[in-house]
Specification:
The chain is an all-beta fold. It has a domain of 290 residues: 6 Propeller (Neuraminidase), CATH 2.120.10. It contains one helix and 30 strands. A five-stranded antiparallel beta sheet has the order 1-2-30-29-28, with no helix packed on it. It is globular, with a radius of gyration of 19 Å.
Length: 421
């Protein structure tokens, strides 16, 4: 969660960055791609989440600071119905006077397009739902038991919604409800012991519908890092009633808690995951995949080790796997790169189910920021312009959409951008 940022400086609204991804120029083998970047907002919003409806409507949400305005501090949601070319800030509705602004997440119901949102205010989370593309909202400021930290939301469709939270002191808790406002079922997905003693928030939450009544046989999964340099997946095949924890990467000498690990569902029970391995001198982006909803995982492999990387995110459908991150050509860890290191929103993809990946390419010619990136969350005193993540999603045609942050003045001013492949 992050403090509210100062008044923002708006840059140009639209840039088209055409990346000729040829073997000669980028060392790539998967043809050419074009990227278009538009400004979603110049409000002080951080950590933009990206969600795409079945009709192609794109939503971007993000927090503006815990209790950043009173009496309410809801995190905004922006909507685009033209592929990200233009944006509308949706009304707050009944969220307007409720607490939030710490962390936020948004999910779109694949069956009816309903929106389900969670908005952290530390004591708890305000959960809300909209059935008309964010024009009106119903909301409940008490999702579950206090005290809560980083929360995530996912839906399997048909109104079945899952909510994950770092519940202090229980660990990682996943709740289930119908309609997105009340979550009567709650289970511990991972304890602090499962996390290796780490009192840490998890990575993202995923869900997949199966044939059981009221989601009783839904696949649900939560990814998380451990204090021993590992990454684990907590999986459920009974609608989040019970969970089993599986290693993706066992204990290592790396630090894996400096960025959220991320998992995506490619369909048919096939999962893909990415995370950041940080050593004393550098950082690398790792990858693994599972054919059976996380019961087993491939041996982790490194996709990107040169320069410095931070905050990778992953999306997948069918044979396409897409990864975005912030990357710098300067060597070092995110926190130790030199002051002149430039960070760029960066993309790489696989078109063969993760067997091979393209080389990484910057999707915009202007840097997101310059200098170190502090990955210590609320313990940071500076270099927090990029928050704790950027995000990638795929539209119905399989094109990548990346939500990310740029700081034009490398300080108090930020803008949220959406880059569309």
């Amino acid at each position: 969660m992050h403090a509210a940022r100062a008044t923002l400086l708006a840059w140009s609204c639209t840039r088209v960055c055409v990346a000729a991804l040829t073997l000669a120029f980028f060392g790539m083998t998967q043809g050419a791609a074009a990227f278009t970047t538009t400004t979603v907002t110049t409000e002080p919003m951080s950590e933009p989440g990206v969600a795409v409806a079945g009709d192609g409507t794109v939503y971007v949400d993000g927090p503006e600071g815990l209790l950043s305005s009173l009496p309410g501090s809801p995190s905004p949601v922006f909507r685009s119905e033209d592929g990200g070319a233009t944006w509308v800030k949706t009304p707050f509705g009944l969220r307007e006077n409720l607490p939030g602004g710490g962390d936020s997440d948004l999910a779109v119901d694949p069956t009816n397009g309903a929106l389900y949102m969670t908005d952290l205010w530390l004591g708890d989370s305000t959960v809300s739902t909209s059935s008309d593309k964010g024009n009106t909202w119903l909301a409940n400021p008490l999702q579950g038991a206090p005290v809560q930290d980083r929360e995530w939301i996912a839906t399997s469709g048909g109104g079945i919604v899952y909510h994950a939270v770092h519940q202090i002191p229980l660990g990682l808790v996943v709740a289930k409800g119908s309609g997105g406002l009340v979550y009567p079922q709650s289970s511990v997905a991972a304890t602090p012991v499962d996390q290796g003693g780490c009192l840490c928030p998890s990575g993202n939450l995923i869900a997949e519908a199966k044939e059981g009544l009221l989601g009783s046989t839904d696949n649900v999964g939560l990814i998380y890092a451990t204090s021993s340099g590992g990454v684990r997946f907590s999986r459920s095949a009974n609608g989040a009633l019970t969970f089993t924890n599986v290693d993706i990467q066992g204990p290592t000498s790396y630090a894996t808690t400096e960025a959220f690990p991320v998992v995506a569902n490619a369909g048919g029970g096939r999962l893909v995951a990415t995370w950041l391995n940080v050593s004393a001198t550098g950082s690398s982006v790792a990858y693994s995949q599972s054919p059976d909803w996380g019961a087993t995982w491939s041996v982790p492999r490194t996709l990107l080790s040169e320069g410095a990387s931070v905050y990778p995110w992953i999306a997948a459908t069918g044979s396409k796997v897409a990864i975005s991150l912030y990357h710098s050509n300067s060597a070092g860890t995110p926190d130790t790169v030199p002051g002149n290191a430039q960070w760029f929103e960066t993309y790489l993809e696989s078109s063969d189910g993760g067997a091979t990946f393209s080389a990484h390419v910057s999707v915009d010619s202007l840097p997101a920021k310059t200098g170190p990136v502090c990955t210590e969350g609320i313990n940071c005193s500076s270099n927090r312009e990029l928050g704790d993540f950027q995000m990638i999603a795929l539209d119905p045609q399989g094109n990548a959409l990346m939500g990310w942050v740029r700081s034009p003045d490398n300080g108090s001013s930020t803008e949220v951008l959406l880059t569309h492949q």
